[in-house]
């Protein structure tokens, strides 16, 4: 009968270890997703700033006559 109790405790420990690993894995995935979202936002902001600079430069070139306006 003692061996049955030992097996039950051992099985409980295995299940607990599995559950903790699974929980840690989900936290790691959430962290990676948050970092990826932050990186995407940063890259989007950089691209928006570059586009705004390009548009500003094009508008200045049109004003001073370096670029002919479209018909």
Model description:
The protein is mainly α. The protein is 89% helix and 0% strand. It is rod-shaped.
Descriptive terms for the model:
mainly alpha; 71 residues
Instruction: Tell me the helix content.
Output: over 70%
Radius of gyration equals: 30 Å
General form: rod-shaped
What's the helix count? Answer: 1
| Count of beta strands | 0
Low-pLDDT parts are none
Largest sheet: none
Beta-strand share of residues? under 5%
Mean pLDDT over the residues: 85
Distance between the termini: 95 Å
Helical/strand content category? mainly alpha
- SSE succession: H
What's the arrangement of secondary structure elements?
Elements: H1 2-64
Can you describe this structure in just a few lines?
With 71 residues, this protein is mainly alpha-helical. It has one helix spanning 2-64.
């Amino acid at each position: 009968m003692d061996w049955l109790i030992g097996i039950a405790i051992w099985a409980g420990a295995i299940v607990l270890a599995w559950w903790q690993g699974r929980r840690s894995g989900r936290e790691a995935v959430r962290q990676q997703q948050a970092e990826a979202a932050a990186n995407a936002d940063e890259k989007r902001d950089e691209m928006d700033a570059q586009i705004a600079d390009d548009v500003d430069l094009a508008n200045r070139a049109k004003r001073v006559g370096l670029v002919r306006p479209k018909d």
